[in-house]
Amino acid sequence: MKKFLVTLVTVLLGGAIVAGVGVFNSVRQEEPPVLVANVVGTKKAPSGEEMPHAELYLDVYPNSSSKVPQPNTPSPINNVLLAGQPFYHPSTSLQVPAHSLVTIHFRQFDGGGQIYNPYFSQVHGTVDGTMKWNGKEVTEIKPDQVGHTFTVHQYPESDQPYFFMSIPLPMNKANAKTDKAGYPVDPQTISVTFMTGEAGSYVWNCEFPCGDMYQEFGGPMQTRGWMAGTFDVVEA
Amino acid sequence: MSVDTTVETSSVFGVHVPQPRQHGAAGGVMRRLNFGTGLIGGVALATIAGWGTAILTPSSASNATFAPMEPTYVYLAVLLGWVIGFMLGIGAFVGPLRWVVGSDITHADAEYMGGKDLGKKRYWKYTTDHKVVGIQYLIVTMLLLGFAGLLAMLIRTELGMTWTELFSPSFYNSMIGTHGIAMILAMIVAVTGPLGNFIVPMMIGARDMAYPRLNALSLWLFVAAVPMLISSMFMGGIQDGWSVYQPLASQAPVGMLGYQLTIIVFAISTAIASVNLMTTILTMRAKGMTWSRTPIFVYGIFASSLMGLYAFPFFQYAQILGLSDRVFGTSFFNPLNGGSVWLYENLFWLLGHPEVYVIIIPSAAIALELMPVFLRKPLFSFNFAVAGIVGVVALSGFVWAHHMYMTGWAPAANYPFMLSTEMISIPVGFLVLVAIGTLWRGTTWTRLPLMAVYAVIFNKMIGGVTGIYLSDVPADQYFHGSMFVVAHFHFMLMGAGLFGGMAGIAFFFPKMTGRILDERIGSIGLWTSFIGFQVTFISMFVAGLQGQPRRVLDFDSQFNISNWISTIGAYVIGIGMLIFLAAIITSWRSGDVASSNPWGSKSLEWQTATPVPLENFPVLPVVTERPYNYGVPDPYEAELDAIDADLAEKVGNK
Amino acid sequence: MIVADVAGTIALVISYTYLWSLNVNGGWAPPGSSLTAEQTNSSIPSTPPVASFAAEGPFWAIFLVVVLATALMWFGYRSARRGNQAGLILGAGLSFLVTVAALVFQWIQISTFPFGAGDGSYASAVLLLCASNIFHLFLLIFIGMGIFMRARKGLIDKTNWYQAQAASYYMTWVSVAFILGAILTTFLVVSPNTDPAIFGTFTQQ
Lengths: 236, 654, 205
What we know:
Chain A is of the alpha+beta class and 236 residues long. In chain A, 14% of the residues lie in helices and 34% in strands. Chain A folds into 2 domains: 1-30; 31-234, Immunoglobulin-like (Sandwich), CATH 2.60.40. Chain C is built from 6 helices and no strands. The N and C termini of chain C lie far apart (57 Å). At the A-B interface, α1 and α2 of A face α5, α6 and α20 of B.
C-alpha cells in the first residue's frame, strides 16, 4: 500500500511539475498585448460595396530610449538583449476584422538603406496596389531607400484563406532634421488600405535586414514585440 | 630539500601493508570542500567575472553586423567564472597543484578522498571511489533526463494540435534544441557514467579505476556543464535544433554561448572519463582475465569510450570555432569572409554519428551481458558479439556524411557513404543475432531486467530497419528533415539506449544499492513506457511518411490525428517513466535487502559482498573460466549425444 | 589523452585545409596593406590587394624552440633511467625555461601578425592554430614545472620515472602539433581556388 502511494505521488508530482512549468511558460508567453483595429465607420470598396472600415496606428522606432515609448513586451530579458534595436509600437500582435477595409497608418522614425530583394520595395496586397507616402500615392519606392517593410505571410495551412500583403516603409535620410534625442522631427508617414476576407491567422515580419547577427536578420527580426508579430483576421 | 622517509602501514582487510613514502602532511583545505563550497565558488566567481566584464566593456561595443557585444562578453564571463569557481570550490585543483609542487596527498588523504568513513557525506564531495562516482553519475543523469523529459512533454503538448501556440515560437524552438542536446548528453553518460564507473572495475576484478581523481574530475565537470545548458534557456535559448547548424548558430541569441561552453566542458569530461575507463580495462583486469574471458559489457564500455575519445574533440572544436566566430569575429563559418558552413557540418557529424554508437553499444552490451544470466546458458557466439562491437567501432568513423546527403556537400560522396552506412548494419546485425541466438532454447527466468531486454531487441530492430531506409540516398531525399527521422532516432537512442539503461539499472540495482528493485512496480513502469513509446513513435513514422517536417511549431491540420496520437503516447511514456522512478525511489529507501549475488551470476562483481567494501575485494580474484559458462556442459548436448549413441547402436545392429 | 588532443588538432588542420581549398567568397587571403579606402568599402574588391600573409620563419623558429624543450625533457628522463638525478633536474628545469621562452615567442608572434581576427578565413585559421599552440605551451609549462619540482624532491628518480616518460611522450606529440602548424602556414598559403563561390552580392533587376 505504501509503495502504491509513493508511486501515485511520484506520478502526480511529475504530472504537476510538467503542468506547472507548461502553464507558467504558456502564460508568460513573450507576446505583446493584442492591438485591435477599431471599426470607425464604413468605406466604399473598389467594387462599390460599402464595407466596415477599421483603422490601426503603428510607429517604427530605431531603438528604445527614454524619449520614445518602450517596446510593449512582457520580456524583461529581451528588453536588455535587444536594447538599441528597432521595434514596432504599440504592439506587434495585431487583430483586424474580417470582410472589412482596414487602413494602417505608419510613422517611420528609422533610417535604412538597400534592400536585397527589390520585390519588397514594391506595394503588394492593398486595395488598389498603392500606398500613401507623405500624402502622395505610390506603388513602389527606390530599393536603396527602404527603412523597413510590413509583410504579412500565409501560414503553411491548406485550410487558411489566402492573404498576403507587403508594404515598404521608406527610410529617413541621414541628413533629416532630428530632435535632441536623434529622432526625426518629421518622420515618414505611410497609409495603406487593404481588404480582409475570411477569418484566419497569419504572421508578419520586416523583410529589410535591420536586426543584428548574421546578415542582420537575427535578433529583433525574429522576435515578437520587435520586428515580427501575429496578424489575426477575426469575424466581427 | 626534505624527503619524508617514514614508512607507514595501512590496514587493508586487517593486514598491515607498508605504504609508499608520504610527501605532504595529511589534511588541509580539501577536507573542508564539498558541493556547497563548489556552488558558492561558482556563483561568486561568476558574479565577479560578469560584473567586472560589464564594467570593462563599453556599452557601445558591437560586432561587424552591429549586434551589441556587451551581453555576449558578460554572459561568457559569467559562464567561465561559474565553471572555474565551481571546480575550484569543490577542490578539483587541489590535487594538480599539490602534484606540481611535489607535495602529494598522503595515504590518509587518499582514503579520505575515497570516502572512507564519511557516510553519506561522500556523495557530496570530490570523492574518488568509483562506486560513489557511479552513484553520483546515476543521480545527475536522472536529473538531466528528467529535465529533458519535462521539455519533451511540453513539446508534445504543443504539437498535440496545430495552431494552438501554447508557447511562443521562440520558446518552442528553444525547447526543441535544449531537449535534443540535453537528452544526447544524458544518454551518452546514462550507461557509461553510472554503470561504467560502478560496475566495470568490479567486473574486471580491480580495486578502483586507474585514475580515481580523474574519475571525480570527469563527474564534476559534467555537473558544472549542466547548469550552463539550462541557463541558455533564459538567455534567448538554443533555437536551432540540437545540431545548431551554422550560420543559424551565429544568428542566434547569446544563449548559444551556453550551448557552446557546455559542449566544450562536457567534451573534456568525456575525454577524461574515456581515458580512465580504457586504461582501467587495459591494465587492471584480474589475473587470468584474458580477452576471451572478459565480459561483453566491458567490451561495450571500452568501445564506447574509444569512440567518444576520438570523435568528441571534433564536436568540441566545432564549438570552439563557432564561439570564436561569435566572440572574436573570426570567420570559420561565415561565408561572406571566407568561412564555410559545410566545415561546421562535417566537424559536427564527425562526432554526431559515432555518438549514436557511443550511446547504443553500451546498452546492447548490457543486454548481452545479462541475457546469459537469465537464460542460464552461454552467450550465443561470444566471438561474434565481439566482432560486432569491433565492426561498429571500425566503421563508425566513416559514416558521418549520410547526414549531409541533402545539403549539397560533395554529392559524389553520397554513394560511398551510403555503402558504408549500410555496411554498418552488418556488425549491428551480429549483435541482434547473438541476442536472438542466446534466447534460443534458453531456460528463461523472466525477471524485470530480461523484460527490458525484450523491449530493447524489439525497438532496436525497428530503429535499425528504418535506419537503413534513411541511409539510402533516394529514400532520404523524401524522408530528410521529416518526422520519420525523428521517430527513427528515438527508436535507436531511446528505444534501444534508454531501455537498455533501464535493463542495466534493474540488473545492477542490488549491487549498487544493496536492495532489490521492486519487480511489480518496475515492470508496470517498464511496460507502460514501452506501450506509450510504440504509440508515440509509430504514429510519428506515419506523420513523417505523410510529409510532416520536423522542428516546426505549426503544421498543416492534415497531420493533426497522428500528432494527437503521438502526444497521448508521450503522456503514457511520461507516466511509465514516473512509475519506474517510483520503483527506484521506494526500493532504494525500503526495498528487500539483496544478497550478494541475487541473480546467481558468474561474473566477478557479484562475487564480492553487498554493500561493496571500499576496496571491492578482500583478495584480488583470479579468473579461470569464461564469464558465461552457465549450464555447461549443455544438457541438450548430452541429450543429443544420447540420441546419437542410440542411433549409432541401432544402425550398427542392422 | 594524446588521442583526444590529436583528434582536436586534426579538427584544426581540417579547418585550415578545407577553408584554404575553398577560398569561399575570395575571403581566404587577408586584405593587404595596398587596400584602398574604396576597396575597404566593397565586399569584393575589383582589384585584389596584395594579401598580408604571416611570415613563415617564426612558425619554424617556435617549433625549433619546442623541439629543444622536448629534447631536454627526454634528456632528463633518460638521465633518470640511468640514475643521474642531477641530469633529470637539469633537463626538466631547462625544458621548463625553454618552454616559457617558446610561450613568449608565440605571444610576440600572435601580437604582431599583419592581420586581425576579422580579416578572412586565413587569419582565423592561423590565429586559432596559434591559440592552440599557446594552450599547449601552458600545459607544457605546468607539466615541466611539476616534473622539475618533483625531481628536486626525489619524487621522480631511477625507480619511479614514469611521469617523466609520460611528459616526454606528450612533449613529442606537442612538437608534432607545432610542425603541423608550421607546414600548413608554409606550404598551404595562397589558395589554389582562383574561381571561388561568391556569396553576398545581389544584382538589381
